[in-house]
Amino acid sequence: MSARRTLRSTVSVEGTALHAGGRVRMALSPAPPGTGIVFRRIDLSACEIPARYDRVSQTRLGTVISDGEGRQFGVIEHLMAAVAGAEIDDLIVELDGPEPPILEGDALSYLTLLEGAGIEEGDAPRSVLKVLKPVTVQSGEARATLHPADAYSFDFEIVFPSPAIGRQTYHWPFSREGFRAEIAPARTFGFVHELDALNKAGLGRGASLENTLAIDGDKVINASLMRFPDEFVRHKILDALGDLALAGAPLVARFEGVLSGHALNNALLRALFADSANYLRMTPG
């Protein structure tokens, strides 16, 4: 029987916020069994939001959770991917700003922090959510499905008109070791021609050629930062892992994504939990 996991000690880091810009400081701390992943804004009074799918309020260029009163945390998916990849169940995330620092635009930066703090198991058993029948959501040509399976895995397909990306597919069976080697290093990416519009909308102000793969026409202008030839589809799996971590417990399912993004990933969890016949909460023996 597997046990719930948390950190052994607190670790902190400071960096740039991807969309808001400016500096933000983050502390990751141990939490008692059953706490789950909880975000706290130390610059706002009484602001504490659990990382759950039903707290998602926005999904444009990142997953945002909110308390319904205007207080929120944005771009949490990279950190949540690292938390899920390290199989951490209970954690307090404290921020003095509206989003975690983007660091290197991947999940490996966060994973390194978590591992540096030390990860330990407690006495409480870890429960999982086993998907019992296929659940699908679709928007145009984009589709996301959770299939019944004996283990957690991902199949993803993306297609972009830029030859720098084109069509990419990737299959990844979940494991902590596989996450560190295959998924966590994949950086976020964006298109240069969209940057001005994003900045005017208050987004992407912290994006740089050090933390984001920048695509201009048919080339990646900072290609020296790339870690994989198919880094773009790997990053989409990273995003999906982080988004699905908002289920509140590890999934036992095969995720199939075709052109899926944050909005569809969240819609998939809402569809899953809309019918209790879709899943079984269980403690593996």
Salient structural properties:
285 residues; alpha+beta; Ribosomal Protein S5, domain 2; lpxc deacetylase, domain 1; five-stranded mixed sheet; 6 helices; 33% strand; globular
How can the largest sheet be summarized?
A: 5 strands, mixed
Name the structural class: alpha+beta
* Count of β-strands: 21
**Sheet with the most strands: spatial strand order:** 2-3-9-4-5
Structural shape:
globular
Q: Tell me the Rg in angstroms.
A: 18 Å
State the CATH topology of the largest domain.
lpxc deacetylase, domain 1
- How large is the share of residues in beta strands? 25-35%
Tell me the span between the first and last alpha carbons: 5 Å
Relative helix content? 10-25%
Order of helices and strands: EEEEEEEEHEHEEEEEEHEHEEHEEHE
Number of helices: 6
The CATH first-level class of the largest domain comes to: Alpha Beta
List segments where confidence is low: pLDDT < 50 over at least 5 consecutive residues.
none
How would you name the CATH homologous superfamily of the largest domain? Answer: lpxc deacetylase, domain 2
Give the number of domains: 2
How would you describe this protein?
With 285 residues, this protein is an alpha+beta fold. The chain has 2 domains: 123 residues, lpxc deacetylase, domain 1 (Ribosomal Protein S5, domain 2, 2-Layer Sandwich); 155 residues, lpxc deacetylase, domain 1 (2-Layer Sandwich), CATH 3.30.1700. Helices cover 21% and strands 33% of the residues. The strands form 6 sheets. A 5-stranded mixed β-sheet has the order 2-3-9-4-5, covered by helices on one side. It has a 5-stranded mixed β-sheet with strand order 12-13-20-14-15, with helices on one face. β12 and β13 form a beta hairpin. The longest helix has 14 residues. The radius of gyration is 18 Å and the shape is globular.
